[in-house]
Task: structure prediction
Amino acid sequence: MSEVNIAKRKEKCENCTKQCNKKQGDDGANSHQESDEVNGQVHEGSQLLLSACLSCDGCLTEEESLKISQQSLQEVERVLALNKKCDVSKHKVLVASICPQSLPFFAVKFGLDVTEAAHKLCGFLKSLGVQYVFDTTLAAGFSILESQKEFIQRYRRRHHDTHAMPMFTSSCPGWIRYSERVLGSLVTPHICTARSPQQIMGCLVKDYFSKQQKLSPEKVYHVLVAPCFDKKLEAVREEFYNSLLETRDVDCVLTSGEIYCLMEQRKVSVEGPDSVPLDHVLGEAGDVALVRHEGRGSEGFLEHIFKHAAKELFGLDVHEITYKNLRNRDFQEVTLERDGETLLQFAAVYGFRNIQTLVHRMRKGRVPYQLVEVLSCPGGCLSGRGQAESEAGGRVDKALVQQMEEAYSSLPVRLPEVNPALHTLYQDWLQGQDSSQASALLHTQYRNQTQSHTQPPHMQW
Amino acid sequence: MKEALTLVQKLSAHPDSRCWFVSWSPSGTLLASCGGDKAIRIWGREGDSWICKSVLQDGHQRTVRKVAWSPCGKYLASASFDATTCIWKKNNEDFESLTVLEGHENEVKCVAWAPSGNLLATCSRDKSVWVWEVDEEDEYECVTVVNSHTQDVKHVVWHPTQELLASASYDNNVCIYKEEDDDWECRATLQGHTSTVWSLAFDGSGQRLASCSDDRTVKIWKEYPNESGQGDLSWKCVCTLSGYHKRTVYDVAWCRLTGALATACGDDAVRVFKEDEASDPDQPVFSLAAQATKAHSQDVNCVAWNPKEAGLLASCSDEGDISIWRFHEED
Result:
């Protein structure tokens, strides 16, 4: 066999050295691990289960993968342990914010209703040394109000701004990252600039709440309990890092599953912790009655914007929303009609395959919707892989998801418009709904960081 | 051996480049080839020879790895390292680019049409398998994206009669997919090969699946009803052909007309196996019926049986050539 042929043979292995290693024996095993780590799938301890929108080579840098894996139970335990030591300079005030999507998980696991489960969870966290436990529904309220406002603005300029419509919702970090890294300018100008509930909670805690408590933001360690792992990536976004004070708006995201795992590790049963009511960001005393937003577990951006737009643009009061399944359960349409005329047409598009269809139609200019609620996870946020993954792994536990949906629906709905806390905060914290503060703290920007497919670094097949 | 492989014609198909794949049209009258020169060539018979009828040049920006004809013969799909899949429409002797399917993150390794003609499957080095649906207006949309493999997916093939899909991967496994409750899922994982599985072929009835691998073997798998009577499918390896191939087996093709099995190998040979008539269906025995040990001067990448003319076989190679063979009884 000539040298040219040998060289050609080596070139033929698409993973180049891997193939040759494989032929020689088990050396290939190491390179598998390497590539898995880059993809964000760390094999030791808890496995990161990123949504389909994030789990590809193109979307995460090694640095980000590292930062994500550092958001762990060990890290939080380390911070808690430092609080017990004498060196006061290393002490932090621990604040935990719980996503409303996580509470139904605990409700099902504890066998309690959502409010009772929240109290037990709060009791557990406080027994660890967490000082304040909040519900992020408040922050989600801001996100919804700002999204509603932006929608109206975009709608009104739709005839002279080609990027105005459709508007895509912005709460899902998997979707945001996929848009920035892969889809680029086809999609990013259409994404609502309102920050996600998590990001706003970060600001609320590190800016407003810290100031109220007369604490410098870097003395506050903010843990967020979320239904998915993608939220860990969201926490490391550059925009949410204060380089002056070297502090993040959210220091660590833990999934519902990770918290539950912590309870199991410490052999804490549901009877163990005290029932402690959650705290209020505004510092009010008394029990905060748990409420939820519209929709089926993903904060209901589509539903809220739909109702608000119907009223604001057409003077119509919408009481019930009817969903029409298109391609499958995760691709649905909602229409507002009057006298046979279609006034508004919105869609909910969840999951990678449906996002592909949406993007394909965007390229062809065949998207009739004014708003699309886009989420990476089929089934929405309650099905986040940080809480809905079955024990066998790889599949969603459908029975668990159904129970979580029931638990979530059992809470009463309250529109953010009538939440007095939001009004107070707009005034006291942001100096008005249209202030520059509101704009800076409640909105964000997206960057196009697309990589070209046509220039491969090395020959592949 | 009473049979032989005789060379009918050799075509310099993709000069100065690899010829990666060849595919016969459903009518058996045309042969499509594709290669490292980013082009697709369509070959047809004129008298006794095969000549180049069309060249599809500007569809891709990188190597074209595989091509596949739609069951009706009016469309051709091409899978490329440029991460796209192109759908071409046949207009007499010309082909026009109808649409380009995007979405894979990197090199597309294979494309295959379902027997219904309504679905298309693609697979990629990005480890995923995509199923696409075509509507009445020739619009293609993503039906599902399945991530059952942990490495590069090399090949996808549809069952001849059911809406069932199989994929082969660098992770040494074969996955079988079926649609279940609104989405496609991997229903069975066939483990057994000890290295990359390069290609797959169903037999005419779809009851058996042949796989070929870098481990130098060809395995035959048979479907069995699951013991518990429901749920996942159960495929067992009923035969392993080992000791015949000196290097990686890159392709396997199962003739729908005669049941003969052809292989393409990195040892430059093309081989044909036949099943012993008396063999037990649960333990079939395949014997080497004929081989061309120097079929090409370099790796043979693909073999394909003509769907209408029994015994007519095409192969192609790294040296850029296509060879047309006749597998027949020796006089």
In short: The interface with chain B takes residues 5, 8-9, 12, 14-15, 19, 22-23, 32, 36, 52, 55-58, 182, 327-329, 352-354, 356-357, 359-361, 363-364, 378, 453-454, 456, 460-461 of chain A (CB under 8 Å).
